[in-house]
Specification:
With 292 residues, this protein is an alpha/beta fold. Helices cover 41% and strands 14% of the residues. The structure holds adenosine monophosphate (AMP), zinc ion and fe (iii) ion (2 copies).
């Protein structure tokens, strides 16, 4: 008997509007070439690429889900919160994003200042030239490579940019509760990004117990850095806490991609009804949201 494979989906990737190397239109084209059934573009702290992505989706007859990945803190833990199905033009969401973007800019300035104190001459103008949207640590890492200070992005993070690194500066404490509320108020659902990927919480169950009452609707279960065991654990947590599962590659484009568009996890099969369930949740949560 032949087994029909469902077309893959990808609900997490980055464009040139944050730290990806492909434009939103190019990402949609690549998704089409890779025969994806749906794509969510989830740039860091900005929705500015979504109008282009949605238009390109219409042109190529590919389902594009408006998304975002917001940087946030919960207690002393740095988290990324994905938002799906947002009305990206919502003024309250845009006001929150402006706050986040300004905080990013201040953080970048502080990192550049630290690097200067360490004898590494980098100007804000040089940094701005590294990207066209939200600038962050990956752009600083690229500049450190261009200047011959380090050879690779992981080395740049290890020595300078990660927590504990020589030029590390913490982001402003923008709360996960605020991010989740902003996503929900803009008609979207909030999903915890890569729970076992980066900045792992020591007690995932406890973290979920705390975030669920704030409005968290799902977990990014399928992610390239998750082991099959972790994916299964997260899928069980979804069931236990009535959360939806998401799947994303966190594709940032080329070169140096650690993931491929449309491949959320190589070790485990992604349920074929994942997107359907996510959209059902979106529809119910939208219906139950108070009129604004
Ligand atoms: P930022 O938004 O400026 O805090 O940068 C966060 C981004 O940096 C993440 O989304 C990753 O793409 C990248 N990143 C974080 N930690 C590392 C690391 N240790 N090595 C390489 N890239 C990293
Ligand atoms: Zn990124
Ligand atoms: Fe992330
Ligand atoms: Fe990401």
């Amino acid at each position: 008997m032949t087994k029909t494979m469902a077309a893959p989906i990808d609900l997490h990737c980055h464009s040139t509007f944050s730290d990806g190397t492909l434009t939103p239109a190019a990402l949609v084209e690549l998704a089409k070439q890779n025969n994806l059934a749906a794509l969510a573009i989830t740039d860091h702290d900005t929705t500015d690429g979504l109008t282009e992505a949605l238009a390109q989706g219409t042109t190529h007859d590919l389902e594009v889900i408006p998304g975002i990945e917001m940087s946030a803190w919960h207690k002393e833990i740095s988290l990324h919160i994905l938002g799906y199905g947002i009305n990206h033009l919502d003024p309250a969401l845009q006001a929150q994003l402006l706050d986040l973007q300004q905080a990013r800019q201040r953080r970048n300035e502080a990192i550049v200042e630290r690097l200067t104190q360490l004898g590494i001459g980098i100007s804000m103008a040089e940094l701005a030239a590294q990207g066209s949207g939200q600038i962050g640590r990956p752009h600083i890492a690229n500049l450190l490579i261009a200047k011959g200070v380090v050879r690779t992005i992981p080395e740049a993070f290890q020595r300078y940019l990660k927590r504990g690194g020589l030029a590390y500066v913490a982001r402003q404490k923008f709360l996960a509760s605020t991010a989740i509320a902003a996503i929900s108020a803009a008609g979207g659902i909030a999903v915890l990004a890569h729970p076992f990927g980066m900045n792992v919480h020591p007690d995932m169950t406890q973290l979920i117990r705390e975030l669920k009452p704030l409005g968290l609707a799902g977990l990014e279960v399928y992610y390239p850095l998750h082991t099959a065991k972790n994916c299964r654990k997260l899928a069980l947590l979804c069931e236990k806490f009535d959360l939806v599962a998401s799947a994303g590659s966190d594709f940032h484009g080329h070169p140096g991609a650690f993931s491929q568009l449309g491949v959320a996890n190589k070790a485990i099969q992604i349920p074929t009804d994942l997107l359907c369930k996510l959209k059902e949740r979106l529809a119910t949560d939208q219906k139950s949201a108070p009129e604004s």
